[in-house]
């Protein structure tokens, strides 16, 4: 029972204290005047009566009512019901007269109203929340005052203060205050459930579902929440609603539903709160940075940026939202129905309860099974209960969930545990839900109808709790409001008689004393626990599914270990390690190990111990620090059980080897362990008691075991009051000593796991070299344990000190902290606690002494052998700089090698890293014993190293048996990544030396320090770098060269036989191969001095010869752009000439010595023009279209100042032309000269339109790339004139869709320029050239794109981020985008050239993008460049001669280190690869050729791609190397020589699908969707490293083949099958394509037979010609395997647009060389087996030989019998015959469709002798009868049957 109201207070305006603008309130009267003992009067009440401040107002306001809540010091809530009305007061200003000072402030001009109104508040203070009852009572008192009823006010108030009602229990009381009123008070049935009225439903209506859920999560996760509203009552309701939906959790922080304005500083408190404030103070709340503001009137919730609210875990959040929306908006479900049923939303009160029911339902799901995670530590005198958070989260599989973590850590949940934890108490609705409804909730999830039904049931119970008697009329109160016009109080509220009221109170108190005490019957009982968690989780399938097979593997392995079958165990180990990633397997491991422990001890031998420890470490490694799955908990007793005997009677336990895991340093883990053990012991304590008392329990022991600790505790709590004092005392003591003994036990345990094995010297053991690398494992324990636990522990726990005493001290401190905490919580006596504190240092000290002995003995174990280091094979001239250092190659982000994608894990591998003058090489074996015999190599040239990064020990997650101190990550631009971790035996300074050497070799001082130059010299030279004098001798040599060049160039025309193409003038005398180095000089008169220089020194002669022989010159002659001789005579008939203006490299350093310029332009002009262009790279011709005679020019961009001047029309020249004008005029002349050279220009009279031109020249159209699976395979043949003239036609291949820049009339010359540079230049309509501005990507873009591409293709670590998949990373790198843009521009230029316009590419400095575009254009336009020789020439001409800066872009020397690596050339090769894919038959070289170049252009193995220009190469003497000077013929200095040499031996670079069409212009598709990622970026061969150093690859393969051959002869035939692993084997070698294999076989046979081996090319050409002949002879043209050779087929194939994927390095197709596709009969002895080959083109008419053999056939004409090879073909329905079995050409055939019968025949004249008569048979067709004779009768029968069956089948 409780008082309805504790105090009644009258508060009014304090007229005396009025000053300034703010008034004050004053308590006029309060009853009772003396405080109740149990409930003191709350202070500061007057502030809450007028939260906005006390003010006088000029107009009367209507009475108001609200309830404020005050919280006292004991956190009891007081509800202050406040009824305020307004009374008249005279204006104090006017009364006092003008003399007062306060008056001055208001100013003289203001009129003061005569009457003001002051607020008067009647306040009830109560501990009960009956706001409606309070409203009625205070209204009644007001009514009595206003209406002047004849009831003494004192009586009413006296009755009110003495009214006593029950707190709960569902009773109803009728009360009257003695003023003719009556009202019924209903109390809730259960006071633990909150009473909410309609407040929850209102809150959802005001703010909406998501906002309220957001506030709900914020309140639970302890954020600050502020409500704003202009209504006080609403603020109170909203706060009440928020607390109601938090049930069963109780809010325990600051709670002020209405905060007065004067106390606003409370909002800056650091603790969480729920506060309501009137909206007037909104501006004051703006600067609160961490407060969530909910505006009830506006319906918004504002969350500051710095606040992060954890949402409910999915799918709970979604289910909750759905359920609430179904309550608030039930029509939503049927809103789309054609005949919607009328659904009424429930009334507000019911809705309110339904929403609360949903939150109850939500909490039941959140907290289900929580009672299974309670640890009861003490039962008497009071239950002490702790919640095991980690286990709860682990079993719910929610350990990652932020929301639940915060809730469980929060104060509200701590209160929940202490309130609901005790097992013996009264239960409520929530307990029932948890106990019995969890299963139902789980089954109904997702079925909204069932969920709503359940919610409605719960809502009904909640409603009934609040309104046990809903039918009863609530009240009858007289109110003024019932009358039409509320009366206004005429007089002020009278002072009341305090004595009268006090009498009432005293009288009531006296009555209470005499009344019998009210006994509240509390139904206490056992709180049911509900279903255990594990079942729930299993059925939900949230447990990581571990197949039974994995568990089986774990069990078997443990059995093998304990049965001492070590070899078996070793084989299973890797699988076990992988299985232990799953939780089920880890649990299984702990259970299995438990079974092998006898009497708390299990002694093992060394190897067993090693394996067990390794498994333990692996199990612990994936445990988080909180150990949510209880794995560490299960292992804790085991690590002190397993041990091994060391010498001298010393035992080493497993705990000394598993210390490095973070879980052991986590205090909450130890507490949970301690509490669970205490609970076990207390449980057994009481179970023993019961068994002593009752002997009959023995038979029911099985049942006894099931009693949980909580159930026991509940029973004990029930019995507690019945026990005597002594018994009670005894039980308390027993429990206390149980806890104490456990504390001692745990102090020992913790010292075991926290003290490192070697406490004396922590960090010294790194370099002892004792350790082992066995197989994949996580343990530091080996047979040579070497005591290195210290490091691991130090890093983990922060014990940084090396001194033994410091380690001991920190461990003692840790254990002391633990002991203090648990003993205080579990009520251990102070004496015991002191005893513990004195004991702990002794325990630790003793343990340290034991460990020292163990440590000493463990060092004496023999070390385990490490695998032998394998040495790599080196190239000729390659030498070791550093011998192998033992390292581990760790898996990077590529998953193929780790076994994740299936197949054995090749990485991590153990071996050594070698540094040579050329490469960094790793060679070793996988640590997984199942693939231990394989060799793993990874290597890359040092020159390709792009990034080197140190890895610390923590970054190197090596699952190996030893301490890894540090690692390195090396990334190479050949798409290799080496993550290595140095073994402990490698001294750290050695690792540093390695890094320095790598750096020195990667960035030599000068290009002569690179491998291409130092090859064959001793390695020392490389590291210490060159001596000075050598460089000087080179310099003098280069000077001489330049001098001689000066003398000779321009005078003579020199040539050699080797390079004479057919177009060469016959003037040059050709000499034999033997005289290769002699030169014939045909002298021409020079225009300036017509004297002939007849005496030429040989060195000069040599230089000149080389200049002419350079790639450029040969190509210019092939293109008919002139020869040197004709240029020297300046014959006017040729439009172009070869100029020697740059022979001294004075005009432009980066151009070649000989250039093609218009015939009419003199050299002097060229020198002037060159200054307008960047780097002096003026426009020169580099290619001419043989059909349209359009030319392609290249140059750099113009200097910015020259751009505008050049393109503004310079026709209107002023009288005195300035220097700039003259230059631009000369430039214009230069361009005009180029235009004049074009036949189309000279033909057209004046300036013609395109149409006339098109008809004569535009007959051909290009070929568009074939794209597999895309529907756009039609031949794209746009009307070119149309395309260029009009803007509509889009480009089919991803070229620019709107050629906006192409005018109505086609220009003769298009200049492709950079958009950013051409701003401001106007187009002149009369000029004959046109500028096409395009956007060019700069070098920085390429560099960044390449970095991202490398990270995508070769990631350094596995990426678990779903948003960063391979394709997403590839897209972000924008590499494909850059290729697309390059191809797009190139195709545009190709089309312009094809249409007869010349094009000048004038971009950037003319050596990056320009080079790419110009080379691609030539490759697409001219089939010659698609041959092996042509491509070489193209690269030499456009890339090397025209000065692409290979050294600079490849960062090859120290000087260019800062510029970084930019793969411009690689980008070009990738474009060629894309074109190759789309036109597989147009290229003579294979894809492997491109990869080879991509690898070696950065490898620095050859000198070809070194240095930035011809000038630099001449200076170094590299360009024209004497052929005779080569000391070592094996060392190729040029990559081209190497390719030629290799190409003679093996057809690896040849593309067998090469079948070019004449003069074909290619137009590839360039859309990104048509581009493929080049497999050069992604593939790798771990068996031998990259396959581009051919000597290394080949050497390894030949020996095993020979051995295999010998074995084959001696033993029984074995299977030829091999397992080929992707990423390990080189597929092209293991599964070679047919042609390469056959050519290889032919070569091998020839060498075996001692014949001189024929070059593969000659063999190939022979076969080709044979095939051509055969295809002509075939009677019916079949789509057979002559496919590639016969040119007439190629058209048919093209139109079908066949798209062929590259199937390996050698060729692009597996092709059949002979016509037979399959033979079913066994080959005859005499016939060499032609291997059966398959074509990817499966022809419809492919042969199918169902039966074949020799028959004699009688001729038709002269009737002779001849033996023929017959083939019966079921599919074609033919009987064919050949001259002999080997013969390919069919001699004739019989169509089986024409056969009428097959009958036995008779021997005719001339038949073969000695043959059975029955061997003859006849075949009758419609035309004639064929006579056959078989070898014998059975054979004849077989033939007849076969033919017969063919006929019947038909």
Q: Describe it for me?
A:
This protein is α+β, with helices and mostly antiparallel strands. It has a seven-stranded antiparallel beta sheet. A hairpin with a 6-residue loop joins strand 41 and strand 42. Helix 5 packs parallel to helix 17, helix 10 packs antiparallel against helix 11 and helix 47 runs antiparallel to helix 48. The longest helix has 30 residues.
List keywords for this structure.
1850 residues, alpha+beta, 7-stranded antiparallel sheet, 59 helices
Topology:
Elements: E1 2-3, E2 7-13, E3 25-31, H1 45-49, E4 64-71, E5 77-90, H2 92-96, H3 101-105, E6 115-126, H4 131-147, H5 153-162, E7 164-165, E8 172-175, E9 182-186, H6 199-207, H7 209-220, E10 224-229, H8 232-246, E11 254-256, E12 273-278, H9 282-285, E13 291-295, E14 300-302, H10 316-328, H11 348-366, E15 374-378, E16 384-387, H12 389-395, H13 402-409, H14 411-420, E17 424-425, H15 429-444, H16 448-466, E18 475-476, H17 498-514, E19 525-526, H18 533-540, H19 548-562, H20 566-579, H21 583-595, E20 602-604, H22 606-621, H23 631-639, E21 642-646, E22 650-653, H24 667-693, H25 701-705, H26 709-719, H27 725-754, H28 789-797, H29 804-825, H30 830-858, E23 880-890, E24 909-916, E25 919-926, E26 936-941, E27 945-952, E28 966-972, E29 976-982, H31 988-1002, H32 1011-1014, H33 1019-1024, H34 1028-1048, E30 1052-1055, E31 1080-1083, H35 1098-1109, H36 1111-1118, H37 1124-1129, E32 1136-1139, E33 1155-1158, H38 1163-1170, E34 1180-1184, E35 1191-1195, H39 1200-1207, H40 1219-1236, H41 1239-1243, H42 1250-1257, E36 1263-1264, H43 1280-1285, E37 1309-1314, ...
Parallel strand pairs: 10-12, 10-13, 11-12, 20-21, 35-39, 36-40, 37-38, 37-39
Antiparallel strand pairs: 1-7, 2-3, 2-6, 4-5, 5-6, 8-9, 9-18, 13-14, 15-16, 17-19, 21-22, 23-24, 23-29, 24-25, 25-26, 27-28, 28-29, 30-31, 32-33, 34-35, 41-42, 41-47, 42-43, 43-44, 45-46, 46-47
Helix pairs in contact: 4-5, 5-17, 6-7, 6-8, 6-11, 10-11, 11-15, 11-16, 19-20, 19-21, 20-22, 21-23, 24-27, 27-29, 27-30, 29-30, 34-35, 44-45, 46-47, 47-48, 47-50, 50-51
């Amino acid at each position: 029972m409780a008082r309805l109201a504790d105090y009644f207070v009258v508060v009014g305006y304090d007229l005396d204290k009025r000053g300034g603008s703010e008034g004050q309130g004053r308590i006029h009267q309060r009853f009772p005047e003396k405080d109740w003992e149990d409930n003191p009067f709350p202070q500061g009440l007057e502030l809450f009566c007028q939260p906005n401040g006390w003010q006088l107002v000029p107009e009367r306001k209507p009475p108001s009512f609200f309830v404020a809540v005050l919280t006292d010091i004991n956190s009891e809530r007081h509800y202050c019901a406040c009824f305020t009305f307004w009374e008249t007061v005279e204006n104090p200003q006017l009364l006092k007269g003008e003399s007062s000072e306060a008056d001055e402030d208001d100013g003289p001009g203001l009129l003061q109203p005569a009457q003001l109104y002051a607020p008067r508040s009647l306040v009830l203070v109560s501990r009960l929340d009956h706001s409606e009852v309070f409203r009625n009572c205070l209204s009644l008192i007001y009514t009595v005052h206003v209406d002047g009823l004849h009831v003494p006010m004192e009586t009413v108030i006296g009755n009110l203060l003495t009214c006593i009602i029950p707190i709960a229990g569902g009773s109803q009381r009728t009360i009257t205050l003695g003023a003719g009123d009556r009202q019924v008070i209903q109390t809730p049935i259960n006071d633990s459930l909150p009473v909410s009225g309609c407040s929850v439903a209102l809150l959802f209506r005001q703010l909406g579902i998501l906002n309220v859920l957001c506030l709900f999560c914020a309140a639970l996760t302890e954020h600050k929440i502020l409500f704003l509203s202009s209504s006080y009552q609403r603020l109170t309701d909203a706060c009440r609603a928020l607390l109601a939906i938090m049930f069963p959790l109780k809010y325990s922080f600051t709670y002020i539903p209405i905060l007065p304005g004067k106390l606003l500083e409370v909002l800056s408190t650091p603790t969480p709160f729920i506060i309501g404030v009137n909206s007037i103070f909104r501006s004051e709340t703006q600067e609160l940075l961490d407060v969530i503001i909910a505006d009830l009137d506006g319906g918004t919730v504002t969350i500051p940026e710095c606040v992060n609210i954890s949402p409910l875990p999915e799918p709970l959040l979604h289910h909750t939202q759905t359920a609430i929306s179904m309550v608030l908006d039930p029509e939503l479900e049927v809103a789309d129905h054609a005949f919607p049923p009328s659904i009424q939303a429930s009334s507000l009160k019911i809705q309110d309860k339904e929403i609360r029911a949903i939150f109850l339902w939500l909490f039941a799901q959140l907290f289900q099974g929580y009672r299974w995670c309670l640890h009861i530590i003490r039962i008497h005198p009071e239950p002490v209960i702790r919640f095991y958070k980690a286990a709860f989260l682990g079993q719910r599989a929610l350990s990652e969930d932020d929301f639940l973590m915060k809730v469980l850590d929060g104060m509200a949940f701590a209160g929940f545990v202490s309130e609901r934890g005790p097992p013996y108490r009264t239960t409520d609705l929530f307990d029932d839900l948890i106990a019995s409804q969890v299963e139902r909730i789980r089954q109904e999830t997702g079925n909204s109808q069932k969920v709503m039904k359940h919610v409605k049931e719960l809502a009904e119970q909640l409603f009934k709790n609040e309104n046990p008697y809903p039918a009863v009329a609530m009240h009858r109160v007289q109110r003024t409001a019932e009358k039409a016009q509320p009366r206004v109080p005429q007089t002020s509220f009278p002072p009341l008689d305090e004595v009268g009221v006090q009498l009432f109170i005293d009288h009531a108190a006296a009555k209470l004393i005499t009344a019998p005490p009210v006994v509240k019957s509390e139904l206490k009982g056992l709180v049911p626990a509900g279903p255990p968690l594990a079942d729930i989780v299993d059925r939900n399938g949230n447990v990581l599914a571990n197949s039974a097979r994995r568990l089986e593997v774990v069990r078997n392995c443990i059995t093998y270990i304990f049965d001492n079958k070590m070899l078996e165990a070793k084989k299973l180990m890797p699988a076990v390690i992988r299985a232990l990633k799953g939780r089920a397997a880890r649990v299984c491991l702990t259970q299995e190990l438990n079974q092998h422990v006898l009497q708390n001890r299990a002694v093992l031998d060394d190897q067993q111990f090693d394996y067990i420890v390794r498994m333990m470490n692996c199990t612990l490694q994936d445990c988080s620090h909180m150990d949510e799955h209880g794995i560490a908990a299960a292992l804790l007793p085991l690590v002190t059980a397993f041990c091994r005997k060391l010498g001298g009677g010393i035992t080493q336990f497993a705990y000394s080897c598993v210390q490095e895991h973070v879980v052991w340093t986590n205090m909450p883990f130890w507490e949970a362990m301690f509490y669970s053990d205490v609970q076990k012991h207390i449980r057994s304590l009481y179970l023993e008691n019961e068994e002593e008392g009752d002997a009959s329990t023995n038979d029911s022991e099985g049942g006894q075991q099931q009693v949980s600790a909580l159930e026991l505790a509940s029973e004990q709590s029930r019995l507690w009051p019945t026990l005597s004092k002594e018994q009670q005392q005894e039980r308390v003591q027993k429990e206390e000593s149980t806890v104490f003994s456990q504390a001692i036990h745990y102090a020992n345990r913790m010292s075991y796991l926290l003290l490192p094995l070697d406490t004396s010297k922590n960090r010294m053991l790194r370099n002892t070299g004792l350790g082992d690398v066995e197989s994949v494992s996580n343990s530091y324990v080996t047979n040579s344990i070497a005591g290195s636990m210290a490091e691991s522990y130090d890093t983990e726990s922060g014990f940084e000190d090396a001194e033994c005493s410091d380690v001991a001290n920190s461990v003692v401190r840790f254990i002391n902290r633990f002991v203090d905490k648990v003993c205080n919580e579990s009520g251990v006596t102070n004496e015991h606690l002191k005893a513990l504190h004195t004991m702990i240092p002794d325990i630790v000290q003793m343990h340290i002494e034991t460990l020292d002995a163990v440590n000493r003995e463990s060092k004496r174990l023999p070390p385990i052998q490490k695998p032998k280091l394998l040495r790599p094979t080196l190239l000729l001239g390659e030498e070791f700089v550093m011998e192998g250092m033992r390292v581990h190659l760790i898996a990077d982000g590529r998953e193929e090698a780790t076994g994740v994608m299936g197949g054995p894990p090749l990485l991590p591998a153990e071996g050594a890293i070698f540094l040579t003058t050329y490469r960094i090489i790793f060679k070793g074996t996988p640590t997984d014993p199942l693939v231990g015999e394989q060799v793993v190599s990874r290597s890359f040239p040092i020159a390709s190293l792009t990034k080197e990064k140190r890895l610390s020990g923590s970054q190197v997650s090596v699952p190996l048996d030893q301490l890894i101190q540090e690692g390195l990550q090396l990334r190479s631009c050949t798409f290799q990544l080496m993550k290595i971790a140095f073994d402990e035996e490698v001294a750290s300074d050695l690792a540093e030396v390695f890094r320095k050497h790598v750096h020195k070799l990667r960035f030599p001082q000068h290009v002569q320090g690179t491998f291409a130059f130092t090859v064959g010299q001793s390695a020392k030279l490389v590291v210490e770098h060159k001596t000075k004098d050598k460089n000087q001798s080179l310099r003098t040599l280069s000077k001489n060269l330049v001098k001689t060049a000066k003398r000779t160039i321009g005078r003579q025309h020199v040539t050699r036989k080797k390079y004479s193409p057919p177009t060469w003038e016959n003037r040059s005398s050709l000499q034999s191969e033997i005289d290769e180095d002699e030169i014939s000089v045909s002298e021409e008169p020079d225009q300036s001095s017509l004297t002939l220089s007849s005496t030429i020194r040989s060195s000069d002669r040599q230089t000149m010869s080389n200049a002419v022989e350079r790639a450029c010159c040969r190509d210019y002659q092939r293109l008919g752009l002139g020869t040197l001789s004709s240029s020297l005579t300046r014959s006017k008939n040729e439009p172009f000439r070869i100029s020697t203006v740059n022979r001294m490299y004075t005009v432009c350093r980066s151009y070649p010595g000989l250039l093609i310029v218009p015939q009419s332009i003199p050299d002097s002009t060229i020198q002037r023009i060159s200054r307008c262009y960047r780097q002096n790279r003026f426009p020169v011709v580099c290619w001419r279209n043989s059909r349209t005679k359009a030319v392609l020019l290249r140059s750099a961009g113009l200097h910015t100042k020259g751009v505008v001047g050049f393109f503004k029309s310079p026709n209107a020249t002023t009288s005195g032309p300035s220097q700039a004008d003259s230059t631009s005029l000369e430039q214009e002349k230069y361009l005009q000269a180029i235009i004049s050279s074009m036949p189309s220009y000279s033909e057209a009279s004046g300036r013609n339109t395109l149409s006339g031109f098109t008809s004569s020249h535009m007959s051909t159209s290009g070929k568009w790339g074939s794209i597999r699976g895309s529907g756009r395979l039609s031949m794209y043949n746009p009307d070119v004139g149309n395309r260029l003239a009009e803007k509509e036609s889009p480009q089919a291949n991803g070229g620019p869709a709107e050629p906006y820049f192409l005018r109505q009339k086609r220009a003769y010359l298009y200049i492709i320029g950079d958009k950013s540079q051409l701003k401001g230049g106007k187009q002149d309509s009369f000029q004959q050239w046109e500028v096409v501005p395009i956007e060019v990507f700069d070098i920085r873009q390429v560099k960044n794109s390449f970095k991202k591409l490398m990270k995508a293709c070769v990631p350094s670590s596995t990426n678990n981020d779903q948003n960063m998949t391979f394709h997403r990373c590839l897209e972000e790198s924008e590499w494909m985008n850059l290729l697309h843009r390059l191809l797009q521009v190139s195709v545009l230029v190709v089309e312009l050239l094809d249409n007869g316009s010349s094009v000048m590419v004038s971009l950037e400095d003319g050596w990056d993008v320009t080079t790419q575009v110009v080379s691609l254009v030539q490759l697409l336009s001219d089939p010659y460049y698609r041959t092996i020789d042509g491509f070489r020439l193209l690269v030499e001409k456009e890339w090397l001669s025209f000065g692409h800066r290979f050294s600079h872009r490849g960062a090859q020397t120290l000087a260019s280190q800062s510029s970084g690596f930019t793969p411009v050339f690689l980008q070009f090769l990738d474009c060629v690869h894309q074109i190759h894919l789309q036109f597989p038959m147009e290229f003579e070289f294979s894809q492997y050729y491109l990869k080879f170049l991509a690898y070696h252009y950065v490898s620095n193995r050859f000198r070809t791609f070194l240095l930035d220009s011809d000038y630099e190469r001449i200076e170094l003497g590299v360009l024209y190397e004497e052929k005779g000077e080569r000391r070592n013929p094996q060392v190729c200095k040029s990559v081209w020589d190497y390719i030629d040499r290799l190409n003679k031996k093996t057809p690896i670079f040849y593309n067998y699908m090469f079948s070019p069409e004449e003069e074909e212009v290619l137009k590839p598709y360039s859309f990104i969707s048509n581009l493929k990622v080049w497999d050069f970026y992604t593939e790798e061969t771990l068996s031998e490293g990259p396959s581009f150093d051919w000597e290394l690859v080949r050497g390894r393969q030949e020996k095993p083949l020979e051995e295999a051959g010998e074995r084959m002869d001696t033993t029984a035939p074995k299977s030829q099958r091999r397992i080929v692993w992707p990423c390990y084997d080189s597929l092209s070698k293991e599964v070679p394509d047919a042609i390469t294999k056959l050519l290889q076989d032919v070569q091998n046979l020839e060498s075996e037979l001692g014949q001189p081996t024929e070059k593969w090319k000659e063999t190939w050409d022979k076969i080709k010609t044979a095939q051509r002949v055969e295809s002509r002879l075939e009677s019916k043209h079949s789509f057979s395997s002559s496919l590639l050779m016969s040119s007439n087929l190629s058209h048919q194939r093209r139109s079908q647009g066949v798209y062929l994927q590259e199937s390996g390095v050698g060729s692009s197709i597996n092709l059949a060389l002979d016509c037979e596709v399959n033979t079913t009969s066994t080959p005859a002895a005499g016939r060499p087996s032609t291997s059966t080959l398959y074509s990817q083109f499966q022809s419809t008419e492919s042969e199918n030989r169902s039966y074949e053999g020799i028959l004699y056939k009688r001729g038709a004409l002269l009737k002779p019998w001849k033996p023929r090879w017959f083939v019966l073909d079921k599919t074609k329905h033919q009987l064919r015959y050949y001259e002999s079995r080997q013969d390919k050409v069919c001699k004739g055939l019989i169509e089986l469709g024409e056969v009428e019968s097959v009958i036995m025949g008779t021997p005719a004249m001339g038949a073969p002798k000695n043959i059975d008569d029955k061997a003859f048979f006849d075949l009758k067709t419609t035309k004639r009868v064929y006579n056959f004779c078989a070898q014998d009768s059975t054979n004849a029968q077989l033939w007849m049957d076969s033919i017969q069956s063919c006929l019947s089948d038909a």
